[in-house]
Amino acid sequence: MKKILALLVMCLGVSVPAWADSAFNPTKPVKIVVPFPPGGGTDAVSRILAEKLTQLWKQQVIVENRAGAQGNIGTAYAAKAPPDGYTIVLAHQGAFTVNPHIYKDTGFDPIKDFIPITRGTQQPFVLVANPNLNVKNLKEFIALAKTQPGKLSYGSSASGPQLTGEMFKAVTGVDMMHVAYKGAGPGIVDVLAGHIGLFVANPTSVAPHVRAGKLVGLVMFGPDGVSVLPDTPTASQAGFPDLGKMPEWYGYAVPAGTPAKVVEELNKDLVTALNDPAVKARLDGLGLNASPSTSKEFADQIQRDLTASKDLVKKSGMTAQ
After folding, report:
1. Which residue segment(s) compose the domain that 307 sits in?
2. Taking CA atoms, which of 23, 72, 188, 225 is between 20 and 30 Å from 11?
3. Which InterPro entries match (predicted)?
4. Residues 148 and 288 in one domain
5. Cα separation of 296 and 73, whole Å?
6. Measured distance CA(83)–CA(59) in Å, rounded
């Protein structure tokens, strides 16, 4: 096959696609599309990964932020990219498994339009409270909330955190109002000021405020904690293991039609990068747990969470913000 391709190059002057060989050896910059603004966890993990991949491939890896519609705009953009391995998308849990149930048209199908490469990180959302609520732990908060049904409010910035908040309500029987924010920043400002009592966020966003005593970490919505919030209990530690069944994840995917050999090589290189001790340490410092996987394992997780989210979205009445 290689001899035939070489002959074509010599005789016809045609270029050989990067995937003609069994390995993915990029000969031009590779793009990672992050469908959220700069500065958040999705952006941070992708920039850390891009630095390592640039070293591995000896080719520049660029992070391109295309934010909007809770991840739909950038994800839909990436779905239409050439399936040659040169465009990778940050596959976000909310965009891939929640948005399809709350938007009439996301612009993409998470199953049909993409091939998963690997899970990147897996970490819990965290529920934080303003100290003025005078609660020190989750059970105290639940007891308080049940004396004031429908009067307390929690905020979130996207589909994934809101779904987590709705799951919390379903499991604990607490009745709270949801306040939607376009970003974690404005929501955290409001919970710090006491305009809302609680907020569901990525640990990266709230850890400094919890450590400073300005917010109270009530529970991690996942089976594992994070080093930046060592004193905030996991769902099981707080006595509600069912709250830990759907931790947040970030992963990476390529457009459908990307050759299997390219996907295989991308998986190998991204897993190598994510397992690098220096990369893991940087992610850990942000409250992100490196959690690489096989392509199939990540595909199975996407399908599983997509199915699990459907009923919860329906019961909660969640709509696009």
Report:
1. 2-123+247-316
2. 23
3. BUG, Bug_dom1
4. no
5. 25
6. 19
